[in-house]
Amino acid sequence: MTRPIRRLAPETASRIAAGEVVERPLSALKEVVENALDAAARSIEIRVERALDHVFQVADDGEGIASTELELALERHATSKIGSLDELDRLTSLGFRGEALPSIAAVSRLRITSRARGADEAACLAVDAGTLVSRGTAARAPGTTVEVRELFFNTPARRKFLSSATGELRAALRMVECYALAFPEVAFRFLVDERERLDWPAAASHRERARAIWGVRHADQLIEAAGGRDGFEVEALLGLPEHARTTREGQVFLINRRWVASPMLGQALRKAYGNLLPNGRYPAATVWLSVPPERLDVNVHPTKREVRFADDGPVFSLVAGACARPLAQLHPPFTVVRGGVAEPRWADRVRERPGQESLRLGSGALGSAERTAAPAPPAPGERGPAPPAGEEAGAAPGAGRSSAAGAQEPELWQLHRTYILAPVRGGLVIIDQHAAHERILYEAARARLEGARTAGQQLLFPAIVDLTRSQFDLVLELGPWLEQLGWSLSLLGPPTVVIQGMPADVRREDPGAFLQDVLDEVSEDASRHPHEDVAERLARSYACHAAIKAGDPLTQAEMSGLVDRLFATSLPHGDPHGRVTFVQLDLDELHRRFGRG
Ligand code: ADP
Ligand code: MG
């Protein structure tokens, strides 16, 4: 139901975050679009001529403004949305300050035409730099049109500081995109110089709106998250880790349908992705949060882009927790292409196997069966080039592979002895061999640290190592964990230890140097992540130093063992340090780049 527009009492007006509402053309447009949404419009059309500060026009089919209230709408601190400050605790509208229209009218030539529902005709006003120049009537369907010409024409100093017209237009399109996500039931059209830049019909769900905005293929890859507690509800569409960006551009936060900037929500999102993402990458995601209005302060900043929660903590954990859940289940939707025939998904195939198998890594670090069948590998430095694909693939049974398949092995290639190229349906996956192996070994190590002790490999000739004093102390501290991983150590007295056995899945030649590397990284890591438990640090350090390196040649069997095991891990997208383990190249993208339409 529409309420009349009233002037806020001076004491109320003075307590509303004061400042510049229209600091730039984008803010003017945002305010006018928010007004249309507050008026319960079902359809909003935005037209721009040349640039936002030349002409923009927003037409809606909302409730409209009574002809008797039109002048009042342009008065400072006149609003139909709140009557007093305590109504902010029940606020459901985007506006509440009664300042946008007068502020815009003061620095432009503004024309407003509005027909209230139930009125016979529309009334219109024209205002130049805040002065009423004409009033009239017009024919119009119910709803409101606001036209803003020559924004800032009377404030030349401000004009000078405007950013580029195209940049502002791009920001405007993004703003509309964000509000379109907040209000999927509203249809949006945006035209620039009569050319349609976007046209989104009313949608029935968030995902349907996402499809209209980003295309079906991309939108359907987004991962849904949801959760709620104590009247707080969150819903999100999360981008795949490999679609993360180097800026926060891909993040949209909507709180009670208001588009806001929120570093706290950004951090919650980042936390949810955990080590699926490398440092310096920001997940792309849209988060819809609904909050009891009394727990949210929207009266923080004149542009209303900032909000404050009564308490950040519960919101942070709600959002981080709800988003982390589906991400933990993430398996890549890839299908290996085998001789042109699509096989079941990697992940599915891998799950069919006995769970333990994916953790049992052979002496060659990558496979078990192929390693027992093949002679012990020479030291990495001595290895010749990898044999041609065909030879080795035929010779090795392929450890850990589903024997039920018995099908053709996928063709894999090693690039620069660093990356594995694997064709998948719809494109190509490029895997970083070291990062992938680290992820595998890390999860295996975590499982061992939490489970029963695993037998290591006994060394034929125990290695005697002189550690530094701090390494020795660390051995004392980590003793049980090291054993759990498969080390068998006896202490000869500081600072010397004898290595009698070491974890079975390690390719490292020098057991002493390996142990020292692991210890050093654990203590280095301790200063970087002081709150992390020691088992976590040990697992990470172990994985890093036990993994094959860039530069190590791999056989077909080793590569397929590695690829299979990677996708059998719980979080295949990133290594334990958060670097990505693979990137995907879409066939569509290749086709496009080769001009195949
Ligand atoms: P606020 O949105 O904070 O109330 P504004 O200056 O943006 O302040 O708008 C003043 C008033 O004008 C609003 O409270 C509303 O009653 C009316 N109004 C503005 N735009 C529209 C619109 N598109 N449809 C209906 N009413 C509108
Ligand atoms: Mg408003």
Strands, helices and their partners?
Layout: E1 6-7, H1 10-13, H2 25-38, E2 43-49, E3 55-60, H3 70-73, E4 78-79, H4 100-106, E5 109-115, E6 122-128, E7 131-138, E8 143-149, H5 156-160, H6 165-182, E9 187-192, E10 195-200, H7 206-214, H8 216-221, E11 223-229, E12 232-238, E13 251-255, E14 258-260, H9 263-273, E15 285-290, E16 296-297, E17 308-309, H10 312-328, E18 335-338, E19 341-345, H11 346-352, H12 369-373, H13 389-395, E20 413-415, E21 419-424, E22 427-432, H14 433-450, E23 457-466, H15 469-485, E24 488-493, E25 496-502, H16 511-528, H17 534-546, H18 556-568, E26 582-586, H19 587-593
Parallel strand pairs: 2-9, 13-15
Antiparallel strand pairs: 1-4, 2-3, 3-8, 5-6, 5-8, 6-7, 9-10, 11-12, 12-15, 13-14, 16-17, 18-19, 20-21, 21-22, 22-26, 23-25, 24-25
This protein binds adenosine-5'-diphosphate and magnesium ion.
